[in-house]
Each structure stands twice: as C-alpha cells, then as structure tokens.
Amino acid sequence: MRIKGFLRVESKPLNLLVQGVGKRLSVNFTDTKIPVENTGNLVFIGEKGRIDQDVISAYLHSSLN
Predict the structure, then answer these.
(1) Which of 21, 31, 34, 56 is the most exposed place for a label (fewest CB within 10 A)?
(2) pLDDT digit string, tens, across residues 20-52
C-alpha cells in the first residue's frame, strides 16, 4: 500500500508531508507551497479489495485523540 498527502498542523507554519510505501513511513515538515485546497487529504493506493477504508478511518481517528 502507498500513502501520500499534505496535512496542516495548527501550531506550525509549515505543512506536514506524509509519504509511505509498504511498512516504510516518512513524516516531515516542508516549506513546499501547497494550495490550501490540497492540504488535509491523504491518498491511499493499494490492490483492489485489500484496503479496508473503515479500519484506516478508525485508526486515524483514534490517533487524533
């Protein structure tokens, strides 16, 4: 599975770049100029039928609490 996206962090002036392939995950702040409408979304890419959106959503929501 692959994951990629830019997230905004309230207390930080830079965007957070999230990239992952398989078990590797990279999370770094970046000064790359990203339009506001392109932040806040993570894209998951994987084999059809092998990604469980409910499991990913539950995991991400639990990480915010």
Answers:
(1) 31
(2) 998 888 999 999 888 888 888 889 998 888 888
Query: Which residues in 1-65 belong to E strands, given as ranges?
Result: 2-8, 15-21, 24-30, 41-45
CA distance 5 to 43: 6
